[in-house]
Amino acid sequence: MPREGSRRVPKQRPRDKVFLNLPYDPKFENLFLSYICAIHAFGMVPRVTLEIPGGMRRLDRIFGLIQSCEYPVHDLSRVQLDRAKPRTPRFNMPFELGLAVAWEKVGNGRHVWFVMEAVNYRLAKSLSDLSGTDPHIHSGTIEGVFREMGNALVRRRRQPDVLQMWRIYREVRGKIPAVLRRCGTQSVFEARVFREISFAASVAAGGIVR
What we know:
CATH class: Alpha Beta
Order of helices and strands: EHEHEHEHEHHH
CATH architecture: 3-Layer(aba) Sandwich
Oligomer: single chain
Largest sheet: 5 strands, parallel
């Protein structure tokens, strides 16, 4: 990946990867971007299922991504029924959370997962098997994501503050129209777009967080 300007993108260790289990929904775009920016603010690398290539068994690849990341973040805030018939809730996110929980139990012990939600107490109703697990409540806001990512990753050596995350977000947000034009799409939820957004966030974080 080329450099942007004169700023050097910091090297990442393999364990510094975060699996993002998020809904790919236009209404979730701002939060999608905020997660990417927050993770780069901590000097880490986001990984998403958008990166999965064709021709591979999807479930195996998803599980492989989860296994390769020390920190999976699972956002279960989109539990509503969709509008298209037959109206159904989203099951991919809780399913992938289940894979992460299983890997924590049988893996190498270096796997710490976090659950994000928008509404207090809803997780106890939507997924009662996680009783005793305190989700991070972001209230469906960008600042809420920044705040709760800071709470989740409080033991990390690099500790950006919310204002720094906002600066990264605004810089990346300003690049989105050009990225979409280059990629010939109107959606941020595509593999090449994600790659360019992630690179832009890494460069921005390198110039803002020390």
